[in-house]
Amino acid sequence: MQERIECCDEHCVHPEILEHVKLEMPDEEALYDLAELFKVFGDTTRIRILYVLFESEMCVCDIAELLNMSQSAISHQLRVLKQARLVGNRREGKTIYYFLADDHVRAIIGQGMEHIEE
Amino acid sequence: MQERIECCDEHCVHPEILEHVKLEMPDEEALYDLAELFKVFGDTTRIRILYVLFESEMCVCDIAELLNMSQSAISHQLRVLKQARLVGNRREGKTIYYFLADDHVRAIIGQGMEHIEE
DNA sequence: ATCATATATGAACAGATGATCATATGTTTG
DNA sequence: CAAACATATGATCATCTGTTCATATATGAT
User: Fold this and answer.
1) pTM surpassing 0.70?
2) What is the spatial distance between Cα A50 and Cα A55, in angstroms, rounded to a whole number?
3) Which nucleotide is nearest to B89 (CA to C1')?
4) Is residue A31 less than 8 Å (CB to CB) from chain B?
5) Looking at strand D, which nucleotides approach a protein CB closer than 7 A?
6) CA distance A14 to chain B (A)
7) Whole-angstrom distance, CA of residue B49 vs CA of residue B44
8) Is the sign of the CA dihedral B45, B50, B54, B58 positive or negative?
9) Which helix (H) or strand (E) element contains residue B89?
10) How far apart are the C-alpha atoms of B105 and B110, rounded to whole Å?
11) Looking at CA atoms only, how far is residue A73 from chain B in angstroms?
12) Other residues' Cβ atoms within 10 Å of the Cβ of residue B65
């Protein structure tokens, strides 16, 4: 007689909550984009780059020197950061300066810091 | 005569800014922890789990059913979320209910959403 | 005690990721 | 135009990650 014969027949949350959850879920594309965004923050090198840019815009070789890493490694990561629109850049002669794209970066990292400092 | 003979001798930011950046950087351990935290957010399954828990605490099999994934996969990811202290759980008989650990989760995901919706 | 149910866990494997190396592109200077 | 410099990029490789499968643990019911 019962439709659902597997687990969670009776013990769990009410069906209307399950329905409600399904309705409230953002669409798959947004969830995917969100995970992709956080992946970008989920790497020590990229976090360090972002922290460096908190203080001032900076060229690639300066970042590499500051973080004691190869120019190539930094360049690859700056590409990832730029694709995620977390940083922007501008050219001045041979040099390319990178800077934080917007204040969400600070906000997100700030919230993260609060959590781990608990 | 010059100490620094590589790139960035003259064109780039002033040395005092470089010094300032070095001083302002959080220590390596904090940066590592921060990256680890964002890694946890950087997966579609875990993001979806967190969104489900936005609405209500829920047991493992319900989450699995809602997300159309195996109980094992969900259990593995709940473990990761718990280790990052993003969710907590409580037992009620055979069932274990998971819930959001604190409001940083909402804040962080909210900021992330704002960014991708730009 | 035995069985069913809910969840957890370890091993294994495929796919993703990040640093390195070599090289390419683009800019300035002589 | 050639050389020097700043940056970007493609290939490679070792490592990490997430799912699956099989199995273990824990609780409740009979």
Assistant:
1) yes
2) 9
3) C7
4) yes
5) 5-11, 17-23, 26-28
6) 10
7) 9
8) positive
9) strand B87-92
10) 8
11) 16
12) 19
